[in-house]
Design brief:
It is a single chain. By secondary structure, the protein is mostly helical. The chain folds into three domains: 147 residues; 173 residues; 144 residues, no CATH class. It is 70% helix and 0% strand. It contains 31 helices and no strands.
């Protein structure tokens, strides 16, 4: 170890002696900033014996010099390219370590920077000298480095992101590679996929995912790749197959490539996506939904999410071909994608999986809308999955803000609203079915009750401008006969999560009532029956939850604001006495709850009438007398 290497290693160790560390740091900084400091590093890079940390520092200084405009002359660049190619060629034979990985990555960055600046004008054989020879290096030891170089070339030169930063350079490099080396490179992808080395196969699939964006698609979609796709994704198994995520991601990238719809449709046929989708629809959720060790550093999602992205990509390409080509085959492919998409939604709790799948399902519903009867089977399957997955899980607390279920449910409810627009009759009959099942259930579920009311509310919102008899009838049923699991006798019977779900079910019922003002105004005889849950243990008298009571007070105010006329004309005394009973006697209500109840009284008593009645005056007295007594009591204690 020479003095220079000692200084570099000291500068990288802040725990070293303070004076020695400062001296070393100053020394290496002087070398780095010197006009010819890079030359000093190039000379030593060509020598053996230096530790990986030292060589990494050399490469870093050289890279900065290359990136500095006008610093290197033509002869300097010739020398540097020669040294870098020789350095890269020697890497496969060196021992592996974490530090050596940093050296490999930094040398790849330096190679890519030189390619970006000099290829093909002054360095036309960059890939023939620096990349292709690695394939025959030391019995295949150079193949991982071959793929590492391609990764960095993509990151820095040919990817979409690189093109956005340096468009001219990116186009120049890609055009030159097409005429120079891309066929050799892609043939290596295919040959590697035929090997039994999972790590190398994962690297090849990663390269296909990266390069399929701009290379001739026939160079990457080979019989070998298609066979691997069906071997990996097309066979039902309880165990996750190796490379599942890599295969799915590579195929998705291929299908995302920009090309005319007619070519896209031919590509779907070539990959045999219908057979693939049928297999994916039959797959069961695997227990080991994790990346294999050969895939961990390739920036992949977990396998189920990559499969969801693939299914969505296939379906969206098929829909694009349907729209532009009016292709019956494309429509058949989209139809085949639905069972696979529904399986993913039905079995996976990951909101990212659901989000990917929902894009296609929402498009499917919109396509089915003009002719819903012809697509009733598929749409019904979607509704059934939405209902199944939207119900609260047994262990779910709806007030737990850390849970991911709420995000999943929000997407499902948005999907349901889209289905309501397309098939209102199907949706309302599905809600009615849940209600009927729970009415006949000897032990009805708060989660199912909440689901029925939540779905019914979505029907109300979407169909608000229409008067649909089935909707009105279902709303009247729900409000006039609340499910038994909300009643006082049920309180305290179950665990905390179930109690929280029961509270949400009550709130969902109150939300249905809030949006039912037209129905209640027309059928005013049902008002007192609808109000009953607000005033008992399902509402203001809930024995344990202050949140439940406070939200009920808020719901009551909003509900009666819209029904002031009905209350003033028919039920003023009943409503006033019911509210006053809580204001005057309840020790459970907070001051804010009481204020909300007084505001509610003000709303109903303040409704304008032509001729005030004695009853109205009496009700005012009932409200004002407790307030006057409280004021007088407060005054006397001062």
């Amino acid at each position: 170890m020479d003095d220079f290497e000692k200084a570099i290693l000291l500068s990288l160790n802040p725990l070293a002696d303070k004076d020695a560390y400062q001296q070393a740091t100053q020394f290496v900084a002087n070398v780095e900033s010197a006009h010819d400091g890079w030359r000093f590093c190039v000379e030593r890079l060509a020598q053996s014996g230096y530790r990986p940390e030292t060589r990494f520092w050399f490469l870093q200084v050289i890279l900065k010099a290359v990136q500095s405009d006008g610093l290197l002359q033509a002869k300097d660049r010739d020398l540097l390219r020669t040294v870098v190619v020789q350095f890269i060629a020697a890497l496969p034979g060196q021992s592996a370590s974490m530090e050596q990985t940093f050296v490999v990555n930094k040398s790849a960055q330096l190679f890519a920077e030189l390619v970006g600046q000099d290829y093909p004008e002054t360095w036309p054989r960059a890939f023939q000298e620096g990349v292709i020879p690695l394939l025959g290096s030391d019995g295949g030891k150079g193949i991982p480095l071959f793929f590492s170089l391609l990764q960095v070339v993509d990151d820095d030169l040919t990817s979409k992101r690189a093109a956005e930063l340096h468009a001219t350079r990116s186009v120049r490099v890609k055009d030159a590679m097409r005429g120079d080396c891309i066929e050799q490179i892609t043939s290596t992808f295919t040959a590697t996929l035929a090997s039994n080395d999972l790590r190398l196969m994962a690297l090849a699939l990663d390269a296909i995912r990266r390069y399929s964006e701009w290379v001739d698609i026939q160079l990457v979609v080979t019989e070998t790749l298609v066979g691997l796709v069906h071997q990996t994704l097309g066979q039902a198994d309880a165990k996750q197959k190796p490379l599942t995520a890599s295969v799915a991601a590579a195929l998705r990238a291929i299908l995302a490539k920009g090309m005319p719809p007619a070519h896209k449709l031919e590509l779907l046929k070539l990959v045999r996506v219908e057979d693939l989708l049928k297999s994916l629809a039959m797959l069961h959720k695997v227990e080991d939904d994790v990346l294999g060790p050969e895939e961990t550093d390739l920036f992949l999602a977990h396998p189920q999410l990559e499969i969801a992205r693939l299914v969505n990509q296939i379906a969206m390409v098929a829909i694009e071909c349907m729209s532009s080509l009016k292709s019956a085959h494309a429509a058949q492919i989209a139809e085949s994608a639905l069972p696979a998409a529904l399986r993913l939604v039905g079995e996976d709790d990951d909101p990212d999986v659901t989000a990917e799948t929902m894009e296609f399902i929402n498009h499917y519903i919109r396509l089915c809308a003009p002719n819903i009867e012809a697509n009733l089977v598929g749409v019904t399957a979607v509704v059934n999955i939405v209902m199944e997955r939207s119900a609260f899980p047994t262990d779910y607390n709806p007030f737990d803000e850390t849970s991911t279920f709420s995000a999943l449910r929000s997407k499902l409810m948005t999907l349901f609203k889209n289905i309501v627009r397309a098939a209102p009759g199907l949706c309302i009959s599905s809600v009615r079915q849940i209600l009927n099942e729970e009415y006949s259930n000897p032990d009805p579920s708060p989660a199912r009750a909440e689901l029925a009311y939540a779905l019914l509310n979505r029907c109300q919102l979407v169909l608000a401008s229409m008067e649909i008899a089935e909707v009105d009838e279902t709303v009247r049923l729900a409000l006039s006969t609340p499910l038994r699991c909300l009643e006082a006798a049920e309180l305290g019977r179950r665990d905390t999560n179930t109690e929280a779900q029961r509270t949400c079910a009550c709130f969902a019922l109150f939300t249905v009532a809030y949006h039912a003002h037209r129905i209640i105004t027309t059928n005013s005889d049902m008002l007192l029956q609808v109000l009953s849950p607000y005033f008992d243990e399902r509402g203001l008298r809930h024995p344990t939850s202050s949140l439940h009571r406070s939200k009920t007070a808020d719901f009551l105010l909003k509900f009666l604001e819209k029904l002031r006329a009905v209350v003033a004309q028919k039920y003023l005394s009943q409503v006033v006495y019911a509210i006053i009973a809580h204001v005057g006697s309840s020790t459970l209500l907070t001051a804010n709850d009481t204020l909300l109840l007084y505001e509610t009284l003000g709303q109903v008593l303040g409704f304008p009438v032509r001729k005030p009645t004695p009853e109205r005056s009496e009700n005012l007295g009932v409200v004002l007398q407790p307030l006057i007594r409280e004021l007088e009591s407060s005054k006397s204690t001062r």
